[in-house]
Amino acid sequence: MLYGRDGELAAIDGLLRRARDGRSGTLVLRGEAGIGKSALLDHAAAADGMRVLRATGVENESGMPYAGLHLLLGRYADRFGGLPEPQGLALCAALNMGGRPGEGDRFLVGLAVLTLLADLAEERPLLVLVDDAHWMDGPSAGALLFAARRLEAEPIAMIFAARDADAPEFAAEGIPELRLRGLDRDAARRLLAERTATLPGRTEQEVLAAAMGNPLALLELPARGGHGSAYERIRRSYAERIAALPERARRLLLLVASDDLGDVGAIVAAAGRCGASVDDAAPAERAGLLRTTADGRLEVRHPLIRTAAVEEAPLNARLAAHRALAEAYRERGDDCHHAWHLISGVTEPDERVAAVLEKTAETERDGGGNASVAAMYEAAAELSEDRAERGRRLAAAARAAADAGLPERAVELAARAEADLPDPVARAELTLTRASLADEQDRTRDAYRLFAETAASVVELDPYTSGYLYFQAASAAANAGDFTALDDIVAEGVRAGVPNASHLRALSRVFAGQRPFATGADLADGVAALRELMDAMRTCYGPRDRIRAGLWHLLVGDVRGAAEAAAALERRHREEGAIGLLAAVLMLRSRTDLLLGRHRDALTAASEGRRIALDTGQRRIRVYLDTVLAQLAAIGGDERRCTELTEEALARAVPPSSVHAASARALLDLGLGRYEAAVERLSDVLSGPNRQGAIAALPDFVEAAVRAGVPERAQEAGEWYGKWAAHVGRPWAEAIAARCAALLTSEDPDALYSRALDLHREGGTPFEQARTELLYGEWLRRSRRRNDARARLHSALEAFDRLGAVPWAERARTELRAAGESLTDGGDGRDVLAARLTPQELQVVRLAATGLSNREIGAQLFLSPRTVGYHLYKAYPKLGVAGRAELGRLDLT
Q1: Which of 314-323, 533-542, 796-805 has the lowest mean pLDDT?
Q2: Could you tell me one molecular function GO term of this UniProt entry (predicted)?
Q3: What is the mean pLDDT of residues 786-802?
Q4: How many angstroms separate the first and last alpha carbons of the chain?
Q5: d(Cα 322, Cα 880) in Å, to the nearest integer?
Q6: Per-residue pLDDT reduced to its tens digit, 587-618
């Protein structure tokens, strides 16, 4: 019986009950060693009607990538072939069960775990238990948490148990937590009375005081003296029990404690090399130190027993145990565990072992398991006797960690490798890795400096690679708004005579024309250069560059071209399950949807992209997506949300996100009638050092300045926007330019407004068109042309209501009343089918309407098939349909 844990038991029982009813849930139990986390997991594991998967993190194997996942899911290897092919191959590669190069992508592994757990739960409700999660290797923990965050409507419960002190942090952002405290005095006394002989009153009080409510301490401390924390006393208690075992039993216990799999065959083989046998397990089992699990594995009964067994054993015994296990796994054909036990079996540099590890790493790399490859290369480096070999292996580890999506680890490894690499080519390759990581982590200035250094160092050895690196350096400098550095990098690359010098010159021309208030000649040349460059990027550069080219479509006003590029990239990355780049694609997709007035689609894409960016640690992209969501909040008049979403971007002041964030707040001010605030905010953007991307803010600045009564402050901005619009030649841009001219003219603006509306009808930007109609309607009303004004204002109101632009719709209503209309107060007016659904429901319904199955939809949206069904079930009544067969006839735009 678990005394004093009524609240915790109720929480766990409720989690399990909901899982059996088809509602997923995850919980993290946190507390000190011995506080009862494992006992609560035992309670959960005993629940009726659930399949239980259980694993325990092992400290000395916390650096072995996917060891925990192997222990948890390895027995279901026969199911991997039934997963979507990219996921199945990725999971096989990660667990060293086959696969091809590049398939061990950590995001695909997480998706595979999600799908496999959902498949298992279709047969029977599933319970996943992870004890000592703080010791579980990072890739395994990451894959399980990735899946946990996407569980919604499956009969699955997941419970992680982790220490909150004296151990590495188990970071589980967004997962509910339950922190375990010590038992109260009454519960502690009852536990003590049940599990120990009657103690003298004074001794009982001493035990209760020393244990401080720690259940394991209460069971281990009676009649034991000494000092120290409850953790240390418990460890000593276990050490004394271990010391009392026969020598051969201690050897067997040490082997079990040194291994994560508990594979009886491997342990028996290793025991033979250590002078022990499986029969020696009996004394340890009788002492409560060892047990055989239901699936036939050998394991210690509590994580602290493992700690005590390893720490109390002499060094030579620990090394001998690992060497014996290494040989046992080698004979069983398990190269990965053979390698890891080899590492643990030596204490000083050993080139023979280092070479074995490097060979294993190369084999693993060919199988795609990049996380384990990085760890093996690092271990080989640590055991290298030669400094240059150490540096080479650390550099290989850094590249593998970067390929595995572990940027922080890769940066650390690269920094360690740099000092030990005498070869200039090897140093250049390492610097390229560091530069790419800096760019991904939004350390843009570090990125372009490192790209440029690397380009210069290899220009004579490999001019093509050098040219590519100069291009990356120049692009990074442009993204940072450092146009001086951009010009210097381009000049250096051109002087070096790299093959793509023309592309570098084009890039310089592009951004010369994109700087606010550039000359007309620079602007025209920049637009032409960008068009040339985008043609080259379609064929000469990689996937990240193609995303960048899609964003550059927007610099020449080609919103539809950007939208088409985004759609093609999104389709490709979803089909391939390439979640790592999908966040950046959705960044482009959401921005184009916003400009095209597809606000629901923009919300859906930005919300999904943000979730992926959070999961994959892509902070720069997540902050950019926050600004898209902030812009939507600004349009809707949601001040609290707009402010929250822009705080980080404004604090970091890194363009273009900082510019978009300031523009979102200014748009909010404009919609709410705070014109002076909008003027000041946009003045700072347009005069500050990070002005790249500010072109889109110019029309808002013009309107705010005119409404604030200071049109003279916006004269230059309006003229420059007009020049830009003329050079890009897009009807929507020329329409907004005509609107700006109408606001700023001292003469009759009627013709300018009429021209703007004519152009809007070609351009397809409904929010901007509605703004023009509102301004035109206001002018017509002031000019006493009430009938004409009402026509324009009604059109604006209809569009604002459809788009959910609440403050703008209210202003249109106010103007209509002033024009003599009798209106009742309206809501947001979004009586369209798509507006009835959440962003995720809308995504699911649209894909279902194309005829895709739940499994196919799940593979594209990184959800389980059951969660897809759950969203459809919720969507049907909102749409007034009975099933998916009716979805095809609905207008879901």
Answers
A1: 533-542
A2: DNA binding
A3: 94
A4: 57
A5: 64
A6: 999 999 999 999 999 999 999 999 888 877 77
CATH class of 425-537: mainly alpha
Q: Single out the residue of 199, 80, 61 nearest to residue 132, CA to CA.
A: 61
Residues 637-682: tens digit of each pLDDT: 999 999 999 998 888 767 778 888 999 999 999 999 999 999 999 9
CATH architecture of 6-179: 3-Layer(aba) Sandwich (3.40)
Architecture of domain 833-889: Orthogonal Bundle (1.10)
| 731 neighbors 563 (Cβ within 8 angstroms) | no
CB proximity list for 136: less than 8 A, separation 6 or greater: 55, 57, 62, 68, 130, 170
pLDDT tens per residue across span 824-883: 655 544 456 777 888 888 889 989 998 889 888 888 888 888 889 899 989 999 998 888
Query: Peptide bond before 516: cis, by omega within 30 degrees of 0?
Result: no
Burial class of residue 155, CB neighbours in 10 A (0-12, 13-18, 19+): buried
Q: What is the DSSP letter of 708?
A: T
Residue 571 to residues 89, 544, 576: CA-CA distances in angstroms?
Answer: 20, 15, 9
8 Å CB contact between 491 and 517: no
Q: Where are the domains of the chain?
A: 6-179, 247-424, 425-537, 729-830, 833-889
Residue 823: HSE in the Cβ half-sphere, 13 Å Cα cutoff: 20
Distances in Å between the Cα of 494 and the Cα atoms of 72, 462, 505, 535 are 55, 15, 8, 20
What string of DSSP letters covers 594-613?
A: HHTT-HHHHHHHHHHHHHHH
Q: Is 687 exposed, middle or buried (0-12, 13-18, 19+ CB in 10 A)?
A: exposed
Q: How far is C-alpha 599 from the chain's CA centre? A: 24
Q: Are 395 and 414 in contact (CB under 8 A)?
A: yes
Pairwise CA distance, residues 862 & 859, whole Å: 5
Give dist(CA 550, CA 755) in Å, integer.
29
| Nearest C-alpha neighbor of 235 from the set 251, 245, 213, 220 | 220
b/e burial code for range 316-350 (CB count within 10 A of at least 16 → b): eebebbbbbbbbbbbeeebbbbbbbbbbbbbeeeb
User: Looking at residue 101, what is its pLDDT?
Assistant: 42
Q: Per DSSP, what are the bridge partners of residue 291?
A: 299
pTM of the model: 0.74
The domain defined by 729-830 folds into 1.25.40
Show the tokens assigned to 249.
């039993």
Residue of 683, 642, 667, 639 whose CA lies nearest to 808: 667
Q: Is the dihedral of CA 850, 23, 142, 68 positive or negative?
A: negative
Nearest Cα neighbor of 887 from 865, 872, 874 is 872
Asked if 627 and 664 touch (Cβ cutoff 8 Å), the reply is yes
Residue partners of 500: CB distance under 8 A and separation at least 6: 464, 467, 468, 470, 471, 536, 540
At position 338, the amino acid (one-letter code) is H
**Average pLDDT, whole number, for the chain?**
85
Band of the pLDDT at 212, cuts 50, 70, 90? confident
